[in-house]
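Journal club prep, notes for RB
We'll compare a predicted complex against what the paper describes. Inputs for the dinuclear copper ion case:
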Amino acid sequence: MNMHKYEKIWLYCGATTLLFFLIVVGVSAFYMGNKPPSCAVTLDPDRVTEHTLFKEPGLKQVGDNEYQLNIVASAFNYDVGTDDKVVEIPKGATVHISATTEDVIHGFELAGTNVNMMLEPGYISTYTNTFKNAGTYTLVCNEYCGVGHHIMAATIEVIEE
Ligand code: CUA
């Protein structure tokens, strides 16, 4: 088969690029242990409050400057474990967030950070974030969930130690 020189070059480019990306994915997956984000952690949406994570929502210290924050969303509220819906986190802390919903799909966007999840009934959404900057961050629902959607919010305050 007679192939044009440029066509051969392009084929080599394509094959090399493919090989390169396969190696990157392979090293990332098998050597560095990276996995795609997963929503495969399930729970019974009718018995959220019986789940060990969500019996008592709120912030718990789990290590040196490391916290677990469990939040239950429902129309139109985030249960963050405090009456005023404010969570105080020390600056620089690493926080493992676990959240779920008791009823419909809600959003979970912590404005000004990379925390942005969808909360689906029957699933636990997780995200780990290190709060490097002090300030007030608003947790907002960014999935339309009903007539009170626009008032669904809570506050994360990152405070200087
Ligand atoms: Cu909850 Cu919109």
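Talking point for the session: Helices lie at 5-31.
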